[in-house]
Amino acid sequence: MNLHHVLLLLAASTGALAVGQAPASSFDSGIEGWGVVEVPGPPYDTVVTNSTPFFSTVFGQPTGSIFSTDRNGNLFLFSAPGAFLGDQSAAIGGFLAYDLRFTPGNLAPGSLHPDVILQGAGQTIVIDAFADAATQTGYWESHSIPLTAGAGWQFDDLSGAAVSPVAFATIMTNLTAVWIRGDFWAGVETSFLDNPRLLAPGSGASAAVMALPTSCNGPAGPLNLTAGSLPQLGTAFGATATGFAAGALGFTILGFQSPGLPLSQFSSAALPNCDLLASTDSVLLALPSNGAASFSWTIPGAPVFAGLDLYLQFLQLELGPMNALTSLSSSNGLQLTLGS
Q1: Is the N-terminal amide bond of 43 cis, ω within 30° of 0?
Q2: Residue extents of the structural domains in the chain
Q3: Cβ atoms of 113 and 43 closer than 8 Å
Q4: Those residues with Cβ within 8 angstroms of residue 316's Cβ, 6 or more apart along the chain or in another chain
Q5: What is the pLDDT of residue 8?
Q6: Between the ranges 69-78, 191-200, 216-225, 305-314, where is the mean pLDDT highest?
Q7: Mean pLDDT of 68-85
Q8: Residues with Cβ within 8 Å of residue 33, at least 6 apart in sequence
Q9: 184-206 pLDDT tens trace
């Protein structure tokens, strides 16, 4: 099943409610009322300490972010201010979107915990929405957490009962806490948060393309990926990669995450400084012609996908005798924000 089919299935299973003014924080000049909580977890409903995050002018998407450093063995999470609480039922069927960055040093991955915790109407629900980012350090990662009961929300902890649509709606109507995980390592780490926002279905999110740079040089030089249009819902999106070596094969990678992992982790044929900048949720063969290969995709028109971030990249493979892989390289990446 390719990513297009996955999106269509998600849209078919998601109900859209009325659109409201979506809460958002950009951290351009301060922490905007956000906090940090530490919980022993599981269970995740007991706060050990409350603290205030720091404001960073060094890291941000594009400028400004908040950050906190792990102080002890508890799980720390960023805690949303009042603007994100109360009746947020308009966001059901949409997403909680945000960007994370980690600078932990050389530490081991920590235990499995929820990525987001919601509390409301006296109940706690959690979701493990993406692979732990503990090994994906030094990069900004954009995450879009589906605000749909059937997306994997569970009561209390990751072994709890599934949350029904009725229960999810009750909690979203009476939110008392929105916590975003910042703790992914077994030791001390510093985690940065930027651009948290609730995206309601059809919220009018703007389409955008952001380049993810690379220092990778292929056999014929850099592989340069550029977008031919903005990724608008219900339209055809196209992108082209140039710089393929003669006779090389190409693969288009489109995914929900940007791992930022060296290709050398996957193959000894990987060239230096070449990274995987798009998760492999959809992989398509691309046959270059005159050093170029193109990708085209008709984006589903379902309003629920407005504001969703996807990641696009091309890989280049050179094959030798007996089709043995002789080199593996990559283009820059593109972060695609789907707009309505």
Answers
A1: yes
A2: 17-199, 208-337
A3: no
A4: 218, 219, 223, 244, 245, 248, 249, 250, 327, 328, 329, 330, 331
A5: 47
A6: 216-225
A7: 89
A8: 81, 82, 83
A9: 876 777 899 998 999 877 555 66
As given in the structure block, the two tokens for residue 137 are: 């350090």
199 vs 210: CA distance, rounded Å? 19
Q: What is the CATH number of domain 17-199?
A: 2.60.120
Q: What is the pTM of this model?
A: 0.60
Name the band, by pLDDT with cuts 50, 70 and 90, for residue 111.
low
What the block records as the tokens of 138 is 């030094």
Token pair in block for residue 230: 């903005």
Give the model confidence (pLDDT) of 321-338 as tens digits. Answer: 888 899 999 999 999 988
In this structure, the strands spanning 261-262 and 154-155 are unpaired
- Enter the CATH code of domain 208-337: 2.20.130.20
Rounded CA-CA distance 251/283 in Å is 7
- In angstroms, the CA 221 to CA 331 distance is 10
Cα three-residue angle 266-267-271, rounded to 5 degrees: 115
> What pLDDT digit, counting tens, does each position of 9-22 carry?
444 444 333 334 57
